[in-house]
C-alpha cells in the first residue's frame, strides 16, 4: 500500500506539468489581456506594463520563464493586485478558505450521513419526507440567494448574527457563510446515504443478520452502515474540492478574505499569475484528495486492494 | 477570604477597564468601499475604491474640501506666473511622514519623476501631462528626468512649469497621481514600500491593516496638521461588490455609508429610509459608439442620425434603470467647470417621437435600406444586467425604423479589446471625467495619431475624425482666456454632435446611502467625500 501511495505521488508530477502547460496556453488563447480595462492605456504605458511582466516576450519564452520559476517555488506576481505575489495571496486567503471548507465539510458530512440513515430507516414515513424537503431546499435554491435570505433573516430582521464581514477569530461571523456552504453539500450526501442505505438494508447479508436474531441497532451499526458508506466516501473527495473552489459566491456576498473569488475573477481579469497559481493549488488538492479517498476505500471495502 | 478579596479586586479592575473603554471608545466609520483595492500606491491606482483609501492616507499639494473643491493641502499657498505656465507652491511648516521624516519639495519632485518614469508603468500618468516634458519622459523620448518641469527651489518651495496654460491644473493636482511619495522609503524598498508593514503617510489617516477580499483599516494620524478637527478615529473600507448584500449589511447596521446600491431598490429606499439615499449627477457620460471606419455601414451620417434620434433617452433613467439618470444629448456633462452656460441641445430632441421615427425612416430609405432590405447591426456590450436592459430597450426602439439588432455581450476585457481593435458596429461605452474640465470628454473624439505606421485611436473607438474639430481642440488648448476657451470647446462639441459622432445616452449619477448617524456628507459631482470631513454620532 505504501509503495502504491508513493507511485501515485510521483505520477502527480507529469500530471501537474501537463495541467500547467494546458492552462497556460489556453489562457493566452483567450482574447483580451490583464491590462484591457474601460480605458485604453497610452501605448507607452502599456508597453511598460507588458515589459514589466515579461508579456512582451514570445509566448514560448514566457512559458519557460514561468515553469522555471515555478520549479523554484515562485508563483510570480499578481498583475491585478499590486504589491502582492500570487504566493502572498494564497498564503493569506487559503487558510481562511480551508477553515471554512473544513468546517462546512465536517458539519455537512455528519449531518448528511445521519439524515440519510434516518431517512432510509424511516423510508416513506414522515421523518423521511421532512428530511427530503429540507434537503431539497439546499439543492434547489442557489447559494447566492440562500445567502441573501439568511442575511436578511438573521442579520437584518432578527439581528442574531452579523450579516457579513470578517473579524479575526470570530465564530459568529462564520456561522452564516458555513451554513450556506454546507447546506447543498449535506443535501447531496444525505441523498447518497439514503439511497445506498436502502439498497444495503434490502441485501441478503442484512437479511441474514436479522434472521440470526440481531437487534436492529446492531444490524445497522455492524453490518449496514459501513458498506452503505462506500458511495458517500467516493463523493467526499470531489465534495471537499467543490467546497474549496465553490466558495466564490459565499466569499463575495459575505465579504470574506478567502481565495475562492480569485479563482473566478482572476480568470475574467486575465490575471494570468493568479489563475495559474490557484489552478496548481487546486490541482494538488484534488490529486491528494483522490489519493486519500482511494486509500480509505481500501480500508472500507476488503475487496479493493492496491498494488 | 483571600478568594473574596481577589474576586473583589478583579471585579473592580474589570469595571474600571470597562468604564475606561467606554469613555475612550473610538469612533469607527464602517464604509462600504466596493471593489478590492488593486494597490495602495498612488501612482498605480485607477479605481475610485482605491482613491477613497489612498486619498485618506496621502495628501497632495492641494486636497478636496467636503464638497470636493480644491483647497490648500500640503501646500499652504501658491503663486501663478502671468502667462499661466509657472506655479510656485509654498509647503506648510511642520508637515511630516508618519515615520517622522519631513515632507519636502524633494518628495514631490521625486514623486512626479516616478510617476512619469516609464518603468513605473503608471496607468494614469497622462492626467498630469500638462506638466512640461512629462509626456516625452513617459514615452522614453527624454531620459534625463531633470528636464521634467517640476523643481524644488528649496525644501519648502516647489516650482511646476507647464507646457501651456492649463485652467484645470490646480484641480488636477488634487488627483492621486499628483500625490507625493516618501522618497527615503521608496528608494530603500522599491515597490514594497506600500506593504502594510512598511507604509507611511502624510494624510489624516494611516493604513494599519489590509486583508484582501475583506477590508482595509486605517486609523487617525495624530501628526496630521489638522488632526484637531478630524472626528473619526478609525475607518474600515469594506470590500463588497455584491450590491444587494451591501444593502443588507447596511440595514443590519454594519455599514454607515454605502457607495453603491442596486438601482431597483431606489424606490424601496426612498419609501423606507427617506433621506438616506443620495442620487447625484456625476461627471460622466454613458454612450454608444458607432464604428465609422471607411467601408463600415455607420460611416454614413444618415444612418447615424436615424439611430441617434430614435433613441428615447427620457425613459432610460426613470423607467429602465430606475434611478432617474438624466438624458444626454451632448458630450459634456452638465456641471463641468470652465464651460459655456448653455449646454448643447439639438432641435430634434424636442420633436415628438413619431416625427423622429418618420424622419429616420426617410433617412434609412435614402441610405438604401427599407422594409425589404433591413439593416442588421451588431450591438456589443460588456456583460452586466443594466447594460443588457438598455441594449434590449434600444434594440426595440430601432425596430420601427427597420434596423435589426443582434446583441452580443462579452466580459469587460474582451469587450474593450474588440472596441479598441475596431471589431464592432455599435458598442457600449462610458466615460467618467478624470478632472473637472470639458476637454476631458471632448478629447475622446479627436482624430487618432499615427505611430510607427499604424493609427493609434486611443479611446476614440468609433474612429470619428473631423479636421475642423481637431483644429478647434488645438486652439482651445492654448487659449488663455477661460471664456473664449469654453466657447471654442462648445463649438467643437456642436460639430461632433451635429455629425452624430456617437450616441450619448445618459449622464451618470452617483448612488450613495448615508446613515443618519453620519454628518458632514456633502453631495458633489465628483462623488468624493474624504473621511476627514465626516463625523459620526453613536
TrEMBL record, chain A:
Q: State where the protein is found.
A: Cell membrane
What's the source species' lineage? Bacteria, Pseudomonadati, Pseudomonadota, Alphaproteobacteria, Hyphomicrobiales
Write down the membrane topology: Multi-pass membrane protein
InterPro entries reported in the protein's UniProt record = BPD_transp_1_N (IPR045621), MetI-like (IPR000515), MetI-like_sf (IPR035906)
PROSITE patterns to which the protein is assigned, alphabetical: ABC_TM1
Question: Which is an annotated Pfam family here?
Answer: BPD_transp_1
- Cellular component terms (Gene Ontology): plasma membrane
UniProt-listed SUPFAM superfamilies: MetI-like
Domain of life, per UniProt, equals: Bacteria
Subcellular location, principal: membrane
Similarity remark:
Belongs to the binding-protein-dependent transport system permease family.
Q: What is this protein called?
A: Oligopeptide transporter permease
Domain named ABC transmembrane type-1 is located at: 94-293
Q: Where are the transmembrane segments?
A: 12-30, 92-118, 130-154, 166-187, 232-254, 274-300
Which keywords, in A-to-Z order, does the entry hold? Cell membrane, Membrane, Transmembrane, Transmembrane helix, Transport
BP term (GO), one: transmembrane transport
From TrEMBL, chain B:
Named from the GO MF annotations, one term is:
peptide transmembrane transporter activity
InterPro entries annotated for this entry? Answer: Peptide/Ni-bd, SBP_5, SBP_5_dom
Outline the extent of the Solute-binding protein family domain.
70-448
- Which Pfam families does the entry link to? SBP_bac_5 (PF00496)
Top-level taxonomic group: Bacteria
Instruction: Please list every transmembrane segment annotated in the UniProt record, as residue ranges.
Output: none
Signal peptide, first to last residue? 1-26
This protein is called: Peptide ABC transporter substrate-binding protein
Amino acid at each position: 500500500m505504501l509503495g502504491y501511495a508513493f507511485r501515485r505521488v510521483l505520477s502527480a508530477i507529469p500530471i501537474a506539468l501537463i495541467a500547467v502547460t494546458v492552462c497556460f496556453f489556453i489562457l493566452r488563447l483567450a482574447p483580451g489581456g490583464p491590462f484591457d480595462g474601460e480605458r485604453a492605456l497610452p501605448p507607452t504605458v502599456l508597453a511598460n506594463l507588458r515589459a514589466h511582466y515579461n508579456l512582451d516576450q514570445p509566448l514560448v519564452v514566457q512559458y519557460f520563464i514561468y515553469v522555471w520559476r515555478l520549479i523554484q517555488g515562485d508563483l510570480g506576481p499578481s498583475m491585478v493586485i499590486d504589491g502582492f505575489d500570487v504566493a502572498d495571496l494564497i498564503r493569506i486567503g487559503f487558510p481562511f478558505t480551508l477553515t471554512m471548507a473544513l468546517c462546512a465539510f465536517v458539519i455537512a458530512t455528519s449531518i448528511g450521513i445521519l439524515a440519510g440513515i434516518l431517512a432510509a430507516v424511516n423510508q416513506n414515513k414522515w421523518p423521511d419526507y421532512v428530511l427530503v424537503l429540507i434537503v431539497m431546499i439546499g439543492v434547489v435554491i442557489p447559494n447566492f440567494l440562500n445567502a441573501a435570505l439568511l442575511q436578511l433573516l438573521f442579520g437584518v430582521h432578527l439581528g442574531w448574527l452579523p450579516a457579513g464581514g470578517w473579524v479575526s477569530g470570530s465564530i459568529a461571523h462564520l456561522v452564516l457563510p458555513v451554513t450556506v456552504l454546507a447546506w447543498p453539500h449535506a443535501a447531496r450526501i444525505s441523498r447518497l446515504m439514503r439511497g445506498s442505505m436502502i439498497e444495503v438494508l434490502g441485501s441478503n447479508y442484512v437479511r441474514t443478520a436479522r434472521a440470526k436474531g440481531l437487534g436492529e441497532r446492531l444490524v445497522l451499526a455492524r453490518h449496514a452502515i459501513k458498506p452503505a458508506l462506500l458511495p458517500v466516501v467516493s463523493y467526499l473527495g470531489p465534495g471537499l474540492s467543490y467546497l474549496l473552489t465553490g466558495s466564490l459566491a459565499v466569499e463575495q456576498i459575505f465579504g470574506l478574505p478567502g481565495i475562492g473569488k480569485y479563482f473566478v475573477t482572476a480568470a475574467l481579469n486575465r490575471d494570468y499569475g493568479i489563475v495559474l497559481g490557484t489552478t496548481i493549488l487546486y490541482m494538488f488538492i484534488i490529486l491528494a484528495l483522490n489519493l486519500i479517498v482511494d486509500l480509505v476505500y481500501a480500508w472500507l471495502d476488503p475487496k479493493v486492494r492496491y498494488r | 477570604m483571600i478568594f473574596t478579596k481577589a474576586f473583589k479586586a478583579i471585579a473592580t479592575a474589570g469595571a474600571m477597564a470597562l468604564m475606561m473603554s467606554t469613555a475612550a471608545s473610538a469612533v469607527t466609520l464602517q464604509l462600504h468601499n466596493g471593489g478590492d483595492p488593486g494597490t495602495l500606491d498612488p501612482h498605480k491606482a485607477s479605481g475610485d475604491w482605491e482613491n477613497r483609501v489612498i486619498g485618506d492616507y496621502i495628501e497632495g499639494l492641494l486636497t478636496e474640501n467636503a464638497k470636493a473643491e480644491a483647497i490648500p493641502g500640503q501646500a499652504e499657498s501658491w503663486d501663478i506666473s502671468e502667462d499661466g505656465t509657472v506655479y510656485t507652491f509654498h509647503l506648510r511648516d511642520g508637515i511630516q511622514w508618519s515615520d517622522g521624516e519631513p515632507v519636502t519639495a524633494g518628495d514631490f519632485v521625486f514623486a512626479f519623476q516616478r510617476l512619469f518614469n516609464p518603468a513605473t508603468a503608471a496607468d494614469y500618468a497622462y492626467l498630469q501631462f500638462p506638466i512640461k516634458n512629462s509626456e516625452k519622459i513617459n514615452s522614453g523620448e527624454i531620459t534625463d528626468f531633470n528636464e521634467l518641469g517640476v523643481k524644488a527651489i528649496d525644501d519648502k518651495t516647489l516650482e511646476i512649469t507647464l507646457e501651456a496654460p492649463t485652467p484645470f491644473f490646480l484641480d488636477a493636482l488634487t488627483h492621486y497621481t499628483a500625490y507625493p511619495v516618501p522618497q527615503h522609503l521608496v528608494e530603500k524598498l522599491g515597490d514594497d514600500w506600500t506593504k502594510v508593514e512598511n507604509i507611511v503617510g502624510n494624510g489624516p489617516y494611516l493604513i494599519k491593516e489590509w486583508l484582501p477580499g475583506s477590508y482595509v483599516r486605517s486609523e487617525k494620524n495624530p501628526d496630521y496638521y489638522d488632526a484637531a478637527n478630524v472626528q473619526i478615529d478609525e475607518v474600515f473600507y469594506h470590500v463588497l461588490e455584491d450590491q444587494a448584500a451591501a444593502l443588507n449589511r447596511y440595514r443590519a447596521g454594519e455599514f454607515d455609508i454605502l457607495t453603491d446600491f442596486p438601482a431597483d431598490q431606489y424606490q424601496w429606499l426612498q419609501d423606507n429610509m427617506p433621506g438616506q439615499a443620495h442620487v447625484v449627477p456625476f461627471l460622466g457620460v454613458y454612450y454608444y459608439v458607432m464604428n465609422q471606419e471607411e467601408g463600415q455601414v455607420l460611416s454614413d451620417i444618415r444612418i447615424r442620425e436615424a439611430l441617434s434620434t430614435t433613441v428615447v433617452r427620457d425613459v432610460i433613467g426613470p423607467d429602465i434603470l430606475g434611478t432617474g439618470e438624466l438624458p444626454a444629448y451632448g458630450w459634456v456633462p452638465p456641471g463641468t467647470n470652465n464651460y459655456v452656460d448653455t449646454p448643447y441641445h439639438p432641435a430634434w430632441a424636442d420633436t415628438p417621437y413619431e416625427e423622429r421615427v418618420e424622419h429616420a425612416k426617410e433617412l434609412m430609405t435614402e441610405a438604401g435600406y427599407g422594409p425589404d432590405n433591413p439593416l442588421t447591426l451588431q450591438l456589443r456590450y460588456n456583460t452586466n444586467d443594466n447594460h443588457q436592459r438598455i441594449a434590449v430597450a434600444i434594440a426595440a426602439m430601432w425596430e420601427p425604423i427597420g434596423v435589426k439588432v443582434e446583441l452580443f455581450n462579452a466580459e469587460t476585457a474582451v469587450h474593450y479589446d474588440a472596441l479598441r481593435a475596431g471589431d464592432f458596429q455599435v458598442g457600449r461605452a462610458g466615460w467618467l471625467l478624470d478632472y473637472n474640465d470639458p476637454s476631458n470628454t471632448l478629447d475622446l473624439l479627436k482624430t487618432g495619431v499615427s505611430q510607427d505606421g499604424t493609427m493609434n485611436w486611443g479611446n476614440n473607438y468609433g474612429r470619428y475624425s473631423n479636421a475642423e474639430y481637431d483644429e478647434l481642440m488645438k486652439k482651445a488648448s492654448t487659449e488663455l482666456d477661460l471664456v473664449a476657451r469654453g466657447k471654442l470647446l462648445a463649438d467643437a462639441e456642436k460639430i461632433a454632435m451635429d455629425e452624430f459622432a456617437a450616441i450619448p445616452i445618459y449622464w451618470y449619477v452617483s448612488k450613495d446611502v448615508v446613515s443618519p448617524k453620519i454628518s458632514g456628507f456633502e453631495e458633489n459631482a465628483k462623488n468624493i467625500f474624504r473621511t476627514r470631513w465626516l463625523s459620526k454620532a453613536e
